[in-house]
Specification:
The complex is a heterodimer of chains A (452) and B (500). Chain A is mainly alpha-helical and 452 residues long. Chain A has helices at residues 2-22, 33-41, 57-68, 80-83, 163-168, 175-179, 202-214, 217-226, 237-251, 258-263, 272-281, 359-367, 369-374, 383-386, 393-401, 415-426; strands at 134-135, 141-145, 148-151, 156-158, 301-302, 336-337. Chain B has helices at 60-63, 465-470, and strands at residues 75-78, 81-85, 91-103, 106-118, 150-164, 169-180, 195-213, 217-242, 247-273, 279-294, 308-322, 326-344, 349-350, 356-357, 362-384, 391-411, 416-436, 441-454, 484-498. In chain B, the strands form two sheets. Chain B has a 17-stranded antiparallel β-sheet that branches. A two-stranded antiparallel sheet of chain B has the order 13-14. Chain B is globular and about 85 Å long. Classes of the chains: A mainly alpha (452), B mainly beta (500). At the A-B interface, α1 and α2 of A face β8, β9, β13, β15 and β16 of B.
Amino acid sequence: MTRIRISLWLASLALAACSETMTTPDPPAPPTLDAQLRQAIGPWGVVPIGAMPAQNPAQVQLGQALFFDKILSGNRDIACATCHQAQASLGDGLSLPIGTGGSGFASSRTLGPGRRFISRNAPSLLNAGLGLYQLFWDARLSRAGFETFAVDSGIVLPGMPNILAAQAMLPVLNRREMRGEPGDKDGLGNPNELAQFSDQATTEVWAAIMVRLSAISEYVTMFDAAFPGRGTSPPRFEDAARALAAFQMQAFTKTGSPFDRYLDRDDFAMTTEQKRGGLLFFGKARCSFCHNGPFLGGQSFANDGAPQIGPGGSKAAPLDLGKGELQSFESYQFAFRVAPLRNIELTAPYMHSGAYATLEAVVGHYNDVPLALRTFDPSKLAPAVRALYHGDAATISAVLATLDGRLTTPLNLTTAEMSDLVAFLKSLTDPAARNLISVVPARVPSGLPIQE
Amino acid sequence: MPGRAVWLSTLLLAWAAPAAAQLISIRTVPISQDHQFDLFPSLRMAMGGASIALGDSLLDPFMNPAKGARLRAARFFGSPGIYGVSSHAGAGRTLPLGALVKSGDWFGGMAVAAQQVDMSQTTPFFPPGPFLLCAACAGQRIDVGPNPRSHGNAYAFAMAGREFRDAGLSIGGSVSWAGLHAIDGVDLLYPASARINQHGHALDLRLGATKQWAGNRSLSALVLHNRFGTTHDVLYLDQFWDPGSQQFGQRPRSVENLDQTNTWGLHLEYQQPLRAPGWRMGWIATTNLMSHPKIPNYEIQNIPRDPGNSEAFNFGVGISKIDQASTFGIDLVYEPIWSYTWADAATPVDRTAGGTIAVGGKTIENRFRFHNAMLRMGFGQDVELSQPTKALGLQVGLMVHTINYSLAQRDNVQGTSRSLDEGWVEWTPTWGLSLRFPAWELRYRGSVTNGTGRPGVSSGDVSVASPQASGNILVAPSGPLTLAPVRVMTHQVSVSFPIR
């Protein structure tokens, strides 16, 4: 009996000792790469993009014609599609775009006599219709209320269904982009009636464009089909802008990238290299500090230390102060809109000044911004813009003086990490965005050539 | 329990009393569910479940139908029970009714039970609505309302057998069926879900034999086949950006998760008296071979699994002493388990190091090795009351269950391996009270299980990795999960009458 009691006691003791060791777990093993990546993505508001609803077909058809028709420009020599070319993923492949008066197409386009480059890189229109909060590099167009958008220059655009329609109202007003200078004549020798109005006469410019369009019966028919409830009132340029937006939303929304599929819970959509890059993007490389939200950017602005190239803005030419051109806060100096990143692989060159031709160069820039700015090599720029690089010590100091605080410290990424990061950026490419040639119409109602 | 990392959940359920050894449950998270399936009356559960060297004339026929031969007379019973999880993290109520009969050498029985189980996830991480449902989803008529508070389960049991007195042999067979709509704690495994609908069944077939020898020695053998299959229809409300409305919206996503396990089992029990008067000893040995055609992709786990198989064993010894009015018993059980699960490639998957894993190939392989142990001990004392035909019985006991496992995981896509060691201890004090009258018997038993946890029960100690961080954007959890400690309290009253 005693032996049995002792045995029981020993057994209990052994069990208790065993239990004691079991309550001290080993350090947890690292989660899987997918688990780490999904947790890293979590806090940044990066959510799947839903399907773009089908747009009014008549508006899409009208918008397509307008997008490719040079009749919207004062000199009838440039269309929206000139700087947003289907063949160049809706950019133009140039560091700085060439507006009215230029000739040629895509990267072979050249300045016309007496003309200057447009100050900032032409952003791709891919996914521009998703509902971005701000547009233009200086974020000068933003939502001001229900169906109302405002431009920092004071223009208020009421009754616009979305920011893309509001944006479509603006390039036709810009002299260097589409409107032209007083005294300009178009290619047929006709006077440029749009250029005669003052810069404040926006309504008159829009009305003059509509006079041109109303003179073309095919456009009249298309406007009637696209906006049938108008009655006897003539179409307005706002209708043209709506149609342009409808076309862009229908044709340029490309959100089927591997990363989008990954967000939609397909763990195998991305390669391991891309996932490692994603971990860096949302972690060590700090990209997601700015490139976050549903569009991976597009909702804030920052001085990212991009090299100053081009004719500059109006305040400190030849320098371009970006948001600082519009508002004087010190933190806005040299600050530009954070670009949304879907399909970024296809939209080179990069940054507001088109300073970098490759994603590798961009990642290299962010790896050590002060060093990259000081050692920028302008020889890699196209000859025409090389002379417009402002690499003097004063300019560099001025840019670095207001550099975003998140970029002042080097990231110290290894070569392999930078390669992974580029791989991740390439996972943002929708294969359907690689070839957009099918959106180019055979002709436009004005009969003007689509491509020179 | 706070701070304990939980990495994987494999819950294999069986409709069986928690102390029964015939079906071995595999758990990799300390979420206890045994109490839900503890339906039938028992003499020994109040004594910590010590049963290897002690007979349990109430429960034994349900565990091994051949033991129905030990019935002395036909009886009707009812054993209503309730359980509750602390922190309002779940509760259930069960009403079993049944009868066991004997006629000559034949015996049989049947029982039915109705059960109501409350959902555990009292405070959803993301309460549904109000929200903007995507326009395309509006016509789908998806019920995105909250879960009903309770769901019902139904159970049925039947057994029959025959005794061969001359040979000291009895044989019996039983069939159990459970229609399941709520398994306690399952909703906790999908913490970011908006709604879970469980449905399925369990079928348990048993064939048993008991051989009695002179000297009160006995050997029992049982072959069982258990098929468990439930479906978890899980509804999530995923946040997305709606280009149409140009704002954030939510869209419903339904995921069907199958939980299927088929088990073949062999169980042996042996008892014999010891030399000392009143003392007995016994041993048990059990083998369970399990195939898991589909293991659910629980949200709180971060290790992909799909099918798998397991080999589970237990070996136990026990001793007991029955004096005139007192009963003592103790069991020690060792439970080694090997589990192998893997994830199938649904599409061709590129390996990091080159090459491709074809459809159906294994992308991830998990090998679990369990070393579980159980201690069950208890004491009972009967007190004769003033009338000689009335007796009061008191029982107390303790059940200690240690679960300890290691996981070796191989990721065939990335070409990496990782390992994990995890363990915890569950301890359950039990108590009971019985009143025996000449014609009928009233019993009460209770228990409280400590050492288990529930994710998301209390806000203080809980850290749910992904859902908190991401606002249901990407609900697949990642990283460690901590559980809040909870206690599970059970109470059962059983009453039995003779059938005249």
